[in-house]
Amino acid sequence: MIATTSDIAAARALRAFSRAGEDRLRGRFATEWAARLEPPAATVDPETARAALRAEHAAQARPDLARVHPSWLVRALREESPAVVRAVLSRLDEPLRSNLRVGLGLAADDLASDRTPHDGAVATALCLWTERLVGDVPARDDDPRVIVAMTSLDPRALVRVIRSAGLAKFALALPREADAASFQADHYRRSLLSSHPSFVAQALRDVAELPGGPRHRFARLGSVTFARLLACCEPYRARWALQHWPYASAKWLRMLMGRRTRPGAALADFEAQVLRLAIDPDATEDTAS
How confident is the model at residue 261 (pLDDT cuts 50, 70, 90)? Predict the structure, then answer.
């Protein structure tokens, strides 16, 4: 069972504020819940727990717009009134302001107002327009590799990793076609066969179930790997990571996640190895996912 963001916060609160009564309070939780609260509480001192709670509250209360793809922000503003759009855009820095203006199809003159806005109304608009977005700390020590890749790689590098993941799985399923597509295919196939020889059939199923034609098939197949690994992550953290992607791409990934149940340990380990190879073709097998 994955410890959720709420579980971690509860564990830190127990450690930070209950002091001598921590064991007594912990006993009031259901057994399964208490087990999920144990690891973070046992590894930090009270002051460190309080500092972590403060930092996470600040990050989650107000999303960092630099870590949200502009397409999500355009979507957040599209249904707002012209007055709210003007109030928000006028208080954003460049180049984000211009990017959102263009994304909303507005001219520079459309941001001009014929009256001074009410301070209270502006403050409310600035607080509420991002209410559907989630914030979080930039990095966690236990972030899975898929979260790190989604949130730290630049767009071009991320596309390369997704395509490489798809190629690796395609090479396992259809080696002759893959060899004709890339000189790396044979290396990917041998690496996966050495660690996961039983997953050739899984790779074949993934290729067979892939919608659409050969165009962009490696990217679509690599997205399946990302979807499976993301389904294994803490849900709030996964949602935060998805906001780093263009909204249309994130929607596609969520659709893939919805079509598949959470993978078992063996399949998750296979997909983790696919991702390791995609990030670093010379990587050796390890236990991190």
Answer: low
| Neighbouring C-alpha atoms within 13 Å toward the C-beta of 246 | 8
Q: pLDDT digits over 7-26, tens only?
A: 888 888 877 876 655 566 76
Each as own residue / partner, the long-range contacts of residues 234-238 (CB below 8 Å, 24 or more positions apart, any chain) are: 234/2, 234/3, 234/4, 234/5, 235/2, 235/4, 236/4, 236/5, 236/6, 236/134, 236/136, 237/5, 237/136, 237/140, 237/143, 237/147, 238/147
- Tell me the DSSP string of 214-272: STTHHHHHHHHHHHHHHHTS-HHHHHHHHTTS-HHHHHHHHHHHHHSPPP-HHHHHHHH
Placement of tokens 């990571």 in the chain:
241
Locus of tokens 């898929």? 146
Q: Are 43 and 127 contacting, i.e. CB atoms less than 8 angstroms apart?
A: no
CA distances from 14 to 17, 23, 30, 39 (A): 6, 9, 15, 12
* Sequence-separated (6 or more) residues with CB below 8 Å from residue 270: 192, 196, 199, 202
Predicted TM-score (pTM) of the model is 0.85
pLDDT in tens, 109-164: 888 877 787 888 888 888 889 988 999 999 998 899 999 999 999 999 999 999 99
CA–CA dist 231, 261 (Å, integer): 8
The helix/strand/coil state of 282 is coil
Q: Where are the domains of the chain?
A: 5-61, 65-128, 145-279
Residue in 29, 45, 41, 125 with CA at minimum distance from that of residue 85: 125
How many Å apart are CA 189 and CA 203, to the nearest integer?
Answer: 11
> How many angstroms separate the CA atoms of 140 and 78, rounded?
32
